[in-house]
Design a protein that fits this description.
alpha/beta
Length: 299
């Protein structure tokens, strides 16, 4: 594979190195620094003229800094005569603001898409978008890769909004599906109402795109066990784990939380298992550069 280069921002360099190892390439040389006032300085220290460039940079916390860093890197590569620029954003920040859920609020997921396109990207590669319609916010190719790591016999959605995601996994694996019906009173606070489906004696896998404070997952696990579930594990692609997340995970209700490494883990926890998404990103980069099907990865 010649004619392409992979670079990394500072958000998750360890993940980028894993992608490089999969592709058997060195991560490109770029200097990313901050001035004392917080302004970001970028210099590409090797030629990228005529190359297909892939920039790995999740827009996780600090979200605004990492997003701005990505935008500046894109501009640097554009001005360095790269043939094409693909933003590899394993975790797409602001994805939860994907619609007008109340009067006079922004659709920030669309704003971020516009910013990336205006900066000069030709393609975006991401993993498990919070809402599938975000792909349509882009006027360029947008690859929404799926992370799949399951082993138990029944799938559950932690809320109504995640039913489509949970159903797709249940269908592919041939498992039954149950739903946790909840009512959210305010941001990061969820009240579990009831369980739709039979979980008596079952080992339940809660499926979601991300885990933030873990409050929803823990309350869902409590409700599932009260309904007779034998065990409850959660498989969430992105481990945001903010606020009281680690305190919530001390609960005995949730037996295991499986996440990917799209976001750097802040600290270890006895219930957390981390699996790598670098291979699927690496395979997507390889196929895109060689004009091969990305969708066939999941067939």
């Amino acid at each position: 594979m010649s004619g392409f280069k992979v670079f990394s921002g500072t958000a998750n360099r360890e993940f980028a190195d894993k992608v490089g190892n999969y592709l058997n390439v060195e991560i490109g040389d770029a200097s990313v620094k901050q001035f004392s006032d917080g302004e970001i300085s970028v210099q590409i220290t090797e030629s990228v003229r005529g190359d297909d460039v892939f920039i790995i940079q999740p827009t996780c916390a600090p979200t605004n800094d990492n997003l701005m860093e990505l935008l500046i890197m894109v501009d640097a590569f554009k001005r360095s005569s790269a043939k094409s620029i693909s933003a590899v954003v394993p975790y797409y920040g602001y994805a939860r603001q994907d619609r007008k859920a109340a009067p006079r609020v922004p659709i920030t997921a669309k704003l971020v898409a516009d910013l990336l396109e205006k900066a000069g990207i030709d393609r975006i590669i991401t993993v498990d978008l919070h809402a599938a319609q975000i792909q349509g916010f882009f006027n360029i190719p947008a690859d929404n890769l799926k992370a799949k790591n399951f082993k138990n016999p029944i799938i559950a959605s932690p809320d109504i909004g995640g039913v489509a995601r949970a159903r797709s996994y249940a269908s592919k694996l041939g498992y039954d599906l149950v739903i946790v019906d909840k009512r959210r009173e305010k941001a990061n606070v969820a009240e579990v109402m009831n369980i739709i489906g039979d979980v008596e004696g079952k080992d339940v896998i809660l499926v979601d795109d991300m885990v933030d404070t873990a409050g929803t997952l823990v309350k869902a696990a409590e409700a599932l066990k009260k309904s007779g579930a034998n065990s409850v594990m959660a498989c969430c692609t992105h481990g945001v784990l903010s606020g009281k997340a680690y305190e919530n995970l001390d609960s005995d209700a949730l037996d295991e939380l499986v996440i990917s490494d799209t976001i750097p883990l802040k600290q270890n926890h006895k219930s957390i298992t981390v699996l790598t998404a670098s291979k699927i990103i690496g395979e997507a980069i390889s196929r895109i550069h060689n004009n091969q099907s990305v969708n066939s990865i999941f067939l």
